[in-house]
Design brief:
By secondary structure, the protein is of the alpha/beta class. It has nine helices and ten strands.
């Protein structure tokens, strides 16, 4: 079975909000420091590695880079199963490995609230994060870790535990510092994240304002 879509259609199927569907590594602008970080994240995505982008500055471009990494990770798996028509920006997908539904974006604040409402179905709902049509999800992007309400922290910790147990590729953004992450979540969870991925501090002045003012 095959179907034709566009780049934004791919990201839509991943759950990426429309405001972020144009985020790529190529259109991430900045000075040499920013571009070095961008290229480091791209190199991690090229081997489908896990990466955690943290830093107190809001608007620094963490979500932009994370979505670019999610799309790159999908491309690395799917490229042998797709055909790209540059003339009309269309992409034809065929085969299981090309499915963008196996690469998923979640806003952690919203996810925490949804899991809070799950009640006795919590375990089943967490399992559903990792399965699509009986196939295992390959990568999860958790955007804005730490913005979930305090009452939802344990539920998010359950998700992080499950990611480690399943050895799922994970991409995380957070406005918390390392000290903030370590004080908010169980120490074992942060240690496991450190063992299975790369922490990158993204803490330069607001990226979106720099683009607006021409100083990024």
């Amino acid at each position: 079975m095959s179907y034709t879509t566009t780049k934004s259609g791919i990201l839509k199927r991943m759950g990426v909000p429309s405001v972020y569907q144009d985020c790529t590594f190529d259109n991430f602008e900045g000075d040499p420091e920013k571009l070095f970080i961008r290229d480091s994240i791209r190199s991690i995505a090229d081997v489908n590695g896990s990466v955690y982008l943290h830093g107190e500055t809001t608007g620094a471009g963490k979500t932009h880079l994370a979505i670019a990494a999610l799309a790159r990770s999908w491309w690395n798996v799917a490229k042998s199963c797709i055909e790209v028509d540059a003339t009309n920006d269309s992409i034809t997908l065929s085969g299981y490995f090309s499915s963008p539904y196996l690469f998923r974006y979640y806003n952690v604040r919203r996810l925490g609230l949804e899991l809070e409402m799950a009640g006795i179905e919590l375990i089943a709902q967490i399992d559903n994060l990792f399965i699509d049509d009986d196939e295992m999800v390959m990568c999860l992007l958790l955007d804005e870790l730490g913005r979930e309400p305090n009452r939802c922290i344990e539920r998010i910790e359950c998700v992080l535990d499950e990611i480690y147990a399943r050895q799922t590729q994970i991409i995380i953004t957070s406005n918390l510092t390392m000290d903030g992450l370590e004080s908010r979540y169980d120490a074992a969870i942060i240690r496991r994240l450190d063992q299975t991925g790369t922490f990158i501090n993204v803490n330069w002045p607001a990226y979106d304002l720099g683009i607006k003012n021409g100083t990024a």
